[in-house]
Write the structure tokens for this entry.
Amino acid sequence: MDVNLANPISSLIDFGRDVVDRIFPDKTVQLKERAEAESHVLELAQARFQATLQATTATDVAQADVNKIEAGAPGWFKGGWRPAIGWVGALALFVYYVPYCVAATVMWVIQCARAHELVARPNLDISDLIALITILLGASTQRMLERLKGVS
């Protein structure tokens, strides 16, 4: 029997069919038992899906309530934590990467001048910070749209 990891429910149903075929050799009994087994497996899968959906919805609603409370807080510490993360990201970019890039570029120019040829430019390795800043800019854009819509 092949196990389909992408769809374990159908693999379980196929396994149940094989078991029913071996236990009940009569075709009418097989069909009846197969239908009952498939119905039971599908009911279990649907109940599990509903429970997961309800838990996810409850978590999302609770987080939305917390976000509304935090956004409405008058103090900077609670109401301003999202902008503070953006400021920290911008400060990290400015304090670390800007001098690093300037120093690397100056050293590269000096190396090219001494060698009298164009040498390979050093890898500045800023991909992690660019990814972080991109995510933060997306979050701040979402926050701005929420404020414009009057959501929070």
In short: The two ends are 54 Å apart (CA to CA). The mean pLDDT is 77.
